[in-house]
Amino acid sequence: MNLLIGNIGHLSVIVAFAAALVAAYSYFQATRGRALGNDDTSWLRVARGAFFVHGLAVFTVIGCLFNIIQAHRYEYYYAWSHSSNHLPVEYMISCFWEGQEGSFLLWIFWHVVLGLFIMRFNRKWEAPVMAIFSGVQLFLVSMILGIVLGDVKIGSSPFILLRDFLTDLPVFKLNPDFVPKDGTGLNALLQNYWMVIHPPTLFLGFALTLVPFAFAIAGLWKRELTAWVKPALPWTLIGGGVLGIGVVMGAYWAYETLNFGGYWNWDPVENAVYIPWLVLVASLHGMVLWQKRRTGLRTSFALVIATFVLILYATFLTRSGVLGNASVHSFTDLGLSGQLFIYMAVFSVLAIALLVYRWKEIPISEKELTLYNPELWVFVGATVLCLGAFQVLFTTSIPVYNSFMGLLGIKTNVALPADQIAHYSKAQLWMGVFVALLSGLAQIMWWQRNDKTTLVNSLTAPTLLTLLGTALVVLLVRYNGLTITPAYIVLTLAGLFGVLANFGTIFTLLRRGVRLSGGAVAHLGIALMLLGILASSGYSNIISRNVSGLLYSREFDESLNRDNVLLWRNETTKMQGYDLTYTGQFFDVPGVPGYVDKQFLFRTDDEYKALARAPIVAGGKTYYKTGDTVEILPENTYYRISYKERETGKEFSLYPRAQVNDEMGEGGLLASPAVKQFLTHDIYSHVSSVLDPRKEKQWSEEKDHVLAVGDTIFLNDYFAVFRAIEPAHETAGLNLQKGDLALQADMIVHGEKRQYHVHPVFVVRNRLVGRVPDEVDDLGVRLSLTNIDPTAGKFTFAVSTTQKDYVILKAMEKPFINLLWSGTLLMTFGFGLSVWQRGRKGGSPAVADAPALVRAERPQSVS
């Protein structure tokens, strides 16, 4: 047992906590009772030193935690419960933030990084802003403190020993120093490259929301009620872009990994991230309005504070255990719910109280807004975003409401909607309609002087093109035998208007020689996303309908029997527009491109090792020779499905993944899809049922055949030729010793489409006879060499058969889903473009002027 690394890590957590406390108090004293920027230098030096110590301690904690994971120190509960010996290095990184403690540590890390940037680039605002930063760090570090004071537990330490966590296990009573040889491993669904980059991106987005919040609170505190917007706005823009990217990364991970057929399932944990992002984007618009048009400052204050409070609420939702029965991937309660509630309550109450106290002092605009003011429509757009966030927040919070009323002794019967996807989607799609329409309208109006004539002239072209485009879409949909509802027509119209209006704005600006508007690009991306969601979700088409007239199993539900196709191994089956052939099971072999046919591998007692039964070749390169030991990743089996388009004859193969996992309940199948991307659609396939590898195969009674070399026998629909008898190879895992006699038969079995080499083995060791049968999984055939008559040259083979291998597959066509992903890229580019433009203008994102989600300066001349 290595206790030193854990002691260093835990001590570093305590140092980080103490240093954050010192930094918060010292920054407070440095600025207390003083004008902004006129700080007490002695307190400021102490504060900076304390924050540097805090940062160093946090980096030490991270190093220690990753060490216990990477070095497989299973004496620690965190390493044992999240990693395993055979996990690739990149997924060990995912192990770091799979647990609650690691995710809090990731959040703390980003705050340290951002704090150092603020100390470097915002010296004038450093003391009040960093006082708030350090206070937040104090609470966050307390979540991983892991100390007990009397009957009160403060935080959950990532360095707790396994024997201290699982105290009731008998093994620790017999041997307190017992260390498991392997860990439980990383959740299979998290073994995906998106889980390496998605959580850090998401938590960076979380951390970035603290920056505008800290500036806003500092502005209220120091009565700098207008000056805070300029330094805070670039950070808000970066936060909106990063958090939005994090949300979409999660959506794409779900699309690639989960088998519900989409990318967003309105799970409460998804909602908990989506809500603050909407409000953050709304606050960004409000800040732009104040910075450029001197209106909406109170709204900006309220929305910036609301964004951070919602981040805290999201943390409470996902980590308190309150969503345990409502979400499939919320964290369980580690006894931190009380701390989380206090954390949320302290900052919420203090921030709201300060805002109320200063409310009457916050400047308001005397300008009267009319229908021809773009500011009005930007404000309306921000309101729509907030209303959309409130609709999701209200429903997602039902479990919280029930729990709260239960604590008061009041039993409530409020239930979540039966069809949550429909409940959320109806309201959110209409929010998307208004956002698309308003973004196009506001962009056009922002760049010109508006009156009735100029507005009609500028809206005529995009409106006519939108109407024509919508009519064309309706005709094409109906031409293809599909229906389109009035609601979908409105959604299409809004999306097209958003695309055309924003594209027109971009074209006009470039023609005038004005710099490209990051806001127009971002809004163009959002409009494309709306169209992509509309097409891919509304017209997702199941192409694997069961047209055989047969019921696969009475144990299956109706949808599985109706919407899936049964594929027998190596038999071609027709499916809408395609001929499908299931051609076998494959394993992932580290270092070998693609996947390796399971039939080329002989499994050994070590489930992570196999022997190569034939040369393993990929791309013309031989990676393993016959008899070599091969490292494999056995958790997942990949089922190769060959697709052939009947019209064009084009072929491609997909490898949907499946894992039989007891934790998945009845059926125990954890399946991930395989996706084939085309320009206009995706083919999305996943297996719904397979032969359970945990169950022994049911073989028929063996039938003996006496053969000589060169003889042929018939095996059901196939035939086999006995070619030769030869010394056995180590590929069967015999561990041959001196004096052993081992012979193997070389038989060729002729299947429907290919030939199979089968090598049943006959072994004599210490006058005892052993037999190692060989199977052809493709054909469901097993052969054993049971007897040898060397005098007569005869060999006895026992043949038995089993049910042929199969998969039940669901396949869907997702039309125009690339509009969603390309729109996401455009939105990201728009945010990035605005950050870059602000950086050029101001020299640094941290000191730059207001970013342009909508460009604020008017052109010099407007015709």
TrEMBL record:
Coiled coil: none annotated. One of its GO terms (cellular component) is membrane. The chain crosses the membrane at residues 6-28, 49-69, 104-122, 129-149, 202-221, 233-254, 274-290, 297-316, 336-356, 376-394, 429-447, 459-477, 489-510, 516-535. Keywords: Cytochrome c-type biogenesis, Membrane, Transmembrane, Transmembrane helix. One of its GO terms (biological process) is cytochrome complex assembly. GO terms for molecular function: heme binding; heme transmembrane transporter activity. It comes from Hymenobacter glacialis. InterPro entries: Cyt_c_assembly, Cyt_c_biogenesis. This is Cytochrome C biogenesis protein. Signal peptide: none annotated. It comes from the Bacteria. Residues 101-320 form the Cytochrome c assembly protein domain. Belongs to the CcmF/CycK/Ccl1/NrfE/CcsA family.
